[in-house]
């Protein structure tokens, strides 16, 4: 398995897609029930293959990721050739960016000496989607990139 198996809730949500996946392999509902009952290891393999296919599809489309912790934000733009990062560090230990109060403080003070910024970019490894998946495994979530784009307009991250 390349990524990780989808959760039970995710699999339930994708039930129609899973049925189509089984159909592409000419597995009927009755055959699936028999596989689950008599060959659980084969059923597990099918779930793993389906999970990898779903992850591959999702990761191919991902353009932005965010990983926000108490005092830091790591905002990623995932371009065709590289991952761009805007890193924000709050130097006020009383702030928690994950709360409304903390984020409101940040919006008022983002240009103060209590906030540091860093930008970077990194080429992908040979497996671009696995690089994205690893960021998700480390706590990043898929977003539409509004926060990244907001910062991009405020701090100059364009190439020189």
TrEMBL record:
Matches recorded under InterPro entries: DUF6495
Pfam families, per the entry: DUF6495
Name used for this protein in its record: DUF6495 family protein
Organism annotation: Croceitalea marina
């Amino acid at each position: 398995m390349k990524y990780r198996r989808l959760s039970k809730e995710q699999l339930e949500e994708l039930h129609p897609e899973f049925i189509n996946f089984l159909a592409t392999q000419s597995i009927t509902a009755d055959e699936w029930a028999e596989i689950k009952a008599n060959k659980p290891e084969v059923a597990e393999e099918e779930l793993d293959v389906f999970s990898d296919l779903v992850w591959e599809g999702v990761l191919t489309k991902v353009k932005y990721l965010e990983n926000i912790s108490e005092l830091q934000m790591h905002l990623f733009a995932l371009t065709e050739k590289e991952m761009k990062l805007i890193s924000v560090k709050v130097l006020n230990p009383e702030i928690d960016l994950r709360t409304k109060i903390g984020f409101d403080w940040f919006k008022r003070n983002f240009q103060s000496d209590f906030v540091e910024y860093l930008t970077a970019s990194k080429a992908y490894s040979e497996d671009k989607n696995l690089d994205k998946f690893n960021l998700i495994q480390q706590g990043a979530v898929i977003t539409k990139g509004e926060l990244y784009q907001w910062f991009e307009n405020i701090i100059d991250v364009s190439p020189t």
